[in-house]
Amino acid sequence: MIENTKLYINGHDAETTWGLRLDGGDQSGYDALTVMRPLKEPVVNKNVTADGAVVVCGTGLVDERTVSVPVHIVANSYTDFRTKKNALEAYLRNGEAGVTPKGKLNVVIKREWRISGTNKKTEETEFESVMYCVGINNYTQFSQVQRKVYNSRTNTWTDVAGTGYGIAKFIISLYEPNEPVSEE
Asked: How many other β-carbons are positioned within 10 Å of the β-carbon of residue 113?
């Protein structure tokens, strides 16, 4: 049974660092990244003096791709949301100064599994690739949690679903040039 899906960007847990989660109950964003990669067209030589064509380089070579990943940011307040969104946007465009090149991202999805009948969890890497951020659209929706419960001990309001104050949905476009993941 799947316990949790986590997104890591350059080793940072996206949820704890920016409040970022894959959208669609984790499945839509997960599917966008893990879908079968396209294959290149074969290189052929069509000699005008011979029948048909000669395949110079066979099929089966993986091609580049651009992936649109639906995500959302969960925040405790609108100010918290703006802070997280601005930090994420700056990071995706500029990387970490002196650590990663501009826009280059090592994107990893890990899934935590709970073993039946025990409290043990195992974590497996489901996807890993070097990608480049090529676009971040403006968020299309910011919804505040409607049902909150007052906790008199802590003098705070918390939402019933445990999703935070609000959720903003948007799309991150990533370019995958089919370069192997390298240890830098």
From this structure: 14
User: Domains in the chain, start-ordered, CATH in brackets?
Assistant: 2-40+57-176 (2.40.30)
From CA 103, how far away is CA 160, in angstroms rounded? 37
CA angle 80, 84, 85 (to 5 degrees): 115
CA 132 to CA 106: how far, in whole Å? 9
Query: How would residue 8 be classed by pLDDT, with cut points 50, 70 and 90?
Result: very high
Q: Which residues of 70-101 are buried (b: 16+ CB within 10 A; e: fewer)?
A: bbbbbbeeeebbeebbeebeebbeebeeeebe
* Residue 110 amino acid letter: K
Model confidence pLDDT, tens digit, residues 104-133: 888 898 887 777 667 777 778 888 888 988
